[in-house]
Design brief:
This protein is α+β, with helices and mostly antiparallel strands and about 675 residues long. Strand 14 and strand 15 (about 260-265) form a beta hairpin.
């Protein structure tokens, strides 16, 4: 019917409900009502209608799949499991089979889910809630912002409810002054358009909010993010952000704790399944950088949305793809042995309904939204307190300064270097641009190993290790609820210039031998990393000896040792034409081999027995980007997920299937 094709799902439900009142078992009417509930994000309401829709004889495999999802969302795991197994075995469509296999894994995890114990206490924020929908709470500078469909008289035909607007009210934490509740200005709340979630930078000078869905079918999937900045005492006219994509859904924005990253949810191509959470770094001029999928530690074949990062850097989000109570549950990302782990917050924060929009206004208390039973309306806002007696939060910050090494070996501040924090597997965690004073800061975690990578034009890329092992503060010694510990480091970069010489420490050889010892190999491996990070340089490996033995002997020995180091680097993948070897023998001492009185000088001879590399040429080649995943990484991630259709393609496919298999 026309209303179904144009996304006016509530009209479809109302129309066929009249038919079902006369004939409750009408398969066609049940089918349309079930699909309309699902497509308007009311999956659980679709369940009794799917049960009566005629889906036998191999028809409507796509609807069978969503029937299984509805069963799982209602906690009917065994029934969902059985239908998914039937689809995997009997469906002739490989795409539906693949999706059913993925959903079966989710259902198995849900069946094995055991919620953890917690100390949360929750309460309906009755002063805010109405019979309509209130959700997406955000507390900022003594004001509580939220989204609601309470007073907008125009109806959104997809759901049959009023369009939603963004409101704010004066509030002292969870104590809200109901007399001050008011919608935001028309520049934000446009008529006949759904406004969604809102987020602010920590300084309160930038806001981003979601807007879309004017009720017309051609625009029903068009939800975008808009930005406004506070200038000259007022907010600028909101405008779309450049990270929006045509024909995709972008919503539920949240800024990182430091305001340097925007998180949001999207169903764009290349995701893990339905809605995924993405991030975009924000530069010093407020521009949004390349969008990154947060990856499998967060995103699943289900839906992940409503990201939020607390002041201590912990990420919270809602998901129906991780093990939980059936619908959207709230999860927190914890780190276990350096790996991010998604953990369900458990009851009473989560429930069999949708639970989402987590926000902390203090370390132990905050808000979230839920459509659980017992509320005042559709979605309600709840407040919570975490009564955990052992709740002590320690924020570890790594603060550093970038320098460059001058020719006299003194240091000078190097501003604007790009610094990246890498995990123990050399995977980028966070990047930052050093300030004019060379300062940079990263959030780190206790008992973990890291690597720092710094790069700047005209300087060699520099890597160095950093660890928090042994630097933790015992929690039983803490008196405050939240404590910040700052750890310090420095990064010293070397100028990229011809004929610059670097001495390699700890490159030792056995007496009269040129083979690479294990301790020397360890040092040469560091050089391999440097050469990979700096592909534009060609180097000469130079070997030097002291003055013991003849000059000819030392020249030959040093040449053999230099050749060995070059061969080792080639074996490690360095292109041979970037390398040359030269044995200097005893001809270029850096210290006296003997004292002025002619006696032996062991310390001087030790300094002379050295291995160096010298930059002999600087090529004009593009440098790789070791600080961030490149496009190939994104492509590889997409290849790994190519069996998982993205939501937009999947929805179109299933709708095409429904058109083919239309019931009479």
């Amino acid at each position: 019917m026309r209303s179904f094709r144009y996304g006016e799902y509530q009209k479809v439900i109302d129309f066929y409900s009249k038919e079902l009142a006369k004939n409750p078992d009408n398969p066609s009417a049940n089918y349309y009502v079930a699909e309309s509930y699902r497509l308007s994000n009311r999956l659980r309401e679709s369940l009794p209608f799917y049960a009566k829709a005629n889906m036998e004889g191999g028809k409507l495999d796509s609807s069978k799949f969503y029937y299984a999802k509805a069963l799982a969302s209602a906690g009917k795991i065994d029934s969902a499991y059985s239908i998914l197994q039937d689809l995997i075995r009997d469906s002739r469509n490989r795409r539906i089979q693949t999706r059913a296999k993925q959903e079966l894994a989710v259902v198995k995890a849900q069946a094995a889910f055991t919620p953890k114990k917690n100390f949360y206490q929750v309460k309906n924020l009755e002063v805010i809630n109405t019979a309509f929908s209130e959700y997406s709470p955000y507390f900022q500078n003594g004001e509580l912002y939220f989204t609601s469909s309470r007073t907008n008289g125009k109806i959104y035909e997809a759901t049959g409810t009023p369009f939603s607007d963004i409101y704010k009210a004066s509030s002292k934490g969870a104590v809200v002054d109901a007399e001050t509740i008011a919608p935001l200005p028309p520049a934000v709340n446009a008529p006949s358009v759904n406004e969604g979630c809102i987020a602010f930078t920590p300084d309160g000078n930038t806001m981003v909010f979601a807007k879309g869905n004017n009720g017309k079918r051609k625009d029903s999937g068009d939800v975008d993010l808009y930005i406004s900045r506070f200038k000259d005492g007022q907010w600028t006219q909101p405008s779309p952000i450049n990270i929006n994509l045509p024909d995709s859904w972008e919503s539920t924005p949240a800024f990182s704790a430091d305001g340097k990253t925007l998180f949001f949810s999207s169903n764009r191509r290349g995701g893990a399944g339905g809605l995924d959470i993405y991030s975009s770094a924000i530069d010093s001029r407020g521009r949004f950088g390349k969008v990154r999928n947060l990856g499998p530690s967060v995103n699943t074949v289900g839906n992940e949305m409503f990201p939020y990062q607390s002041s201590n850097g912990k990420l919270y989000f809602s998901s129906d793809g991780w093990p939980g109570f059936g619908m959207l549950d709230i999860f927190e990302m914890n780190r276990v042995k350096g790996k991010p782990i998604a953990e369900n917050l458990g009851e009473p924060v989560n429930s069999p309904g949708d639970d989402f929009g987590f926000f902390l206004f203090k370390a132990d208390r905050g808000f979230f939204a839920s459509n659980r039973e017992g509320g005042k309306g559709d979605d309600d806002i709840y407040t919570f307190v975490n009564k955990d007696p052992n709740l002590k939060i320690v924020n570890y910050l790594l603060q550093g300064i970038t320098y460059f090494q001058k020719k006299d070996n003194s240091r000078e501040i190097l501003p604007n270097a790009r610094v990246t924090l890498l995990d123990d597997e050399n995977k980028p965690m966070e990047s930052a641009r050093a300030s004019a004073a060379g300062k940079f800061t990263f959030k780190v975690y206790e008992n973990e190993n890291y690597r720092l990578l710094a790069e700047a034009d005209g300087y060699l890329v520099k890597r160095q290790p950093f660890t928090t092992l042994g630097k933790s503060i015992p929690k039983d010694s803490l008196k405050e609820l939240e404590t910040t510990v700052t750890l310090d480091t420095v990064m010293v970069l070397d100028a990229l210039e011809k004929n610059k010489i670097f001495v390699l420490e700890n490159i030792y050889f056995e007496y009269n031998k040129d083979n690479i010892r294990p301790d020397a190999a360890h040092e040469l491996n560091k050089l391999v990393v440097l050469l990979n990070d700096n592909p534009e340089i060609k180097i000469e490996m130079g070997s030097h000896t002291d003055s013991v033995a003849s000059d000819a002997y030392n020249k030959d020995l040093s040449q053999r040792r230099a050749n060995s180091t070059v061969q080792y680097l080639i074996q490690k993948g360095i292109v041979a034409d970037r390398l040359s070897a030269k044995g200097y023998g005893e001809s270029v001492p850096v210290a006296r081999n003997t004292n002025p009185d002619g006696t032996d000088n062991p310390e001087g001879r030790a300094r002379n027995r050295r291995t160096e590399f010298k930059i002999v040429d600087i090529l004009d080649v593009p440098k790789s980007q070791p600080t961030e995943p490149n496009d190939d990484d994104d492509a590889a991630a997409t290849d790994e997920k190519k069996d998982a259709p993205d939501e937009a393609d999947e929805e179109k496919f299933f709708k095409d299937e429904l058109e083919k298999e239309r019931m009479p």
